[in-house]
């Protein structure tokens, strides 16, 4: 099989892009977001521990698969209390809130979301010690949901 | 409305098992109009709870930001054989439930 240099470059470039950590500026932007503030109430938001899996491109915003994973031992002493899924552009910005506890065993939630256009999606996790951790993902939505008549 | 729940056929005690549920529901956004131009009222499942042998293990607060026919996948520790019960309520006030048996070995 002949894989052209261009193919290899594209694969490498894509991989490098995916590995790029969230820039500090995004964290700063997210931290002052009123919807985020309504959840954290002034508590600091940190980056890491949370991983939000979302495709980079969605042809249709009506149903976009997503997955949130939080690194946590999920014991009675140290577990994830809630996971918030926030949207930048949806009419209802708080898309979903999931409440889990030590009985979950693993802090991982999968679902399908509806997105009104290209935007940044934020996953915010509240841990049992009261700390907040986040991850964000940028997604390009070709055909947006909610506002059109489909 | 119908719901389908999937759990592993056999689970070991203490193991985190994957639970998946899909509920038939339009999750109306309130922004659509019907064929005569009348707005379709907003109607989404707002709360969903999962009880494992009577103990709440998972709760979700949802909005129209969750796609129609909401699908949820989460984990719970297999403690004992028994039943998973799901309860949900939508904006129209409809309350529904579904249940699924769980078999735990060991």
CATH homologous superfamily identity of chain B: Immunoglobulins
Basic shape of chain B: elongated
Q: Specify Rg of chain B, calculated over alpha carbons.
A: 16 Å
Overall structural class of chain B, as computed from helix and strand content, comes to mainly beta
H/E element string of chain A?
Answer: HHHEEEEEEEEE
The CATH topology of chain B, please? Immunoglobulin-like
Distance between the termini of chain A: 43 Å
Question: What summary fits the major beta sheet of chain B?
Answer: 4 strands, antiparallel
Task: Please state the average pLDDT score of chain A.
Answer: 86
Mean pLDDT of chain B: 93
Using only CA atoms, what is the Rg of chain A? Answer: 17 Å
- Give the strand tally of chain B: 9
Written account of the structure:
- The model of chain A has no long low-confidence stretch (mean pLDDT 86).
- Helix content of chain A is 20%, strand content 39%.
- Chain A contains 3 helices and 9 strands; from the N terminus they run H-H-H-E-E-E-E-E-E-E-E-E.
- Chain A has a single domain, classed as Sandwich (Immunoglobulin-like), CATH 2.60.40.
- Chain A has 150 residues and is of the alpha+beta class.
- Chain B has 106 residues and is mainly beta.
- In chain B, the strands form 3 sheets. A 4-stranded antiparallel β-sheet of chain B has the order 5-4-7-8, with no helix packed on it. A 3-stranded antiparallel β-sheet of chain B has the order 1-3-6, with no helix packed on it.
- In chain B, a hairpin with a 4-residue loop joins strand 7 (82-90) and strand 8 (95-102).
- The chains are: A alpha+beta (150), B mainly beta (106).
- The A-B interface holds A 62-64, 67, 74, 85, 87, 90-92, 94-101, 103-115, 145-147, 149-150 and B 15-17, 20, 27, 29, 31-33, 52, 55, 57-68, 70-77, 79.
């Amino acid at each position: 099989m002949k894989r052209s240099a261009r193919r290899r470059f594209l694969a490498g470039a894509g991989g490098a892009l995916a590995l790029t950590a969230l820039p500090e500026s995004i964290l700063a932007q997210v931290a002052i977001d009123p919807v985020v503030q309504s959840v954290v109430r002034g508590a600091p938001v940190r980056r890491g521990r949370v991983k939000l899996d979302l495709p980079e491109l969605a042809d249709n915003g009506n149903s976009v698969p997503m997955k949130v994973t939080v690194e946590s031992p999920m014991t009675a002493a140290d577990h994830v209390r809630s996971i918030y899924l926030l949207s930048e552009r949806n009419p209802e910005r708080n898309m979903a809130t999931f409440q889990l506890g030590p009985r979950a065993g693993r802090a991982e939630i999968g679902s399908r979301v509806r997105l009104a256009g290209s935007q940044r999606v934020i996953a915010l996790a509240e841990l049992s010690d009261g700390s907040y951790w986040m991850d964000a993902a940028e997604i390009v939505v070709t055909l947006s949901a909610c506002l059109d008549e489909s | 409305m119908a719901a389908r729940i999937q759990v592993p056929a056999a689970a070991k005690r203490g193991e985190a098992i994957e639970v998946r549920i899909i509920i038939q529901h339009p999750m109306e956004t309130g922004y659509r109009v019907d064929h005569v131009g009348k707005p379709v009222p907003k109607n989404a499942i707002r709360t969903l709870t999962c009880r494992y042998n009577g103990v709440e293990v998972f709760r979700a607060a949802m909005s129209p930001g969750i796609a129609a026919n909401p699908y949820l996948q989460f984990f719970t520790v297999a403690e004992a054989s028994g039943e998973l019960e799901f309860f949900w309520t939508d904006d129209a006030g409809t309350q529904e439930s579904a249940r699924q048996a769980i078999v735990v070995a060991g």
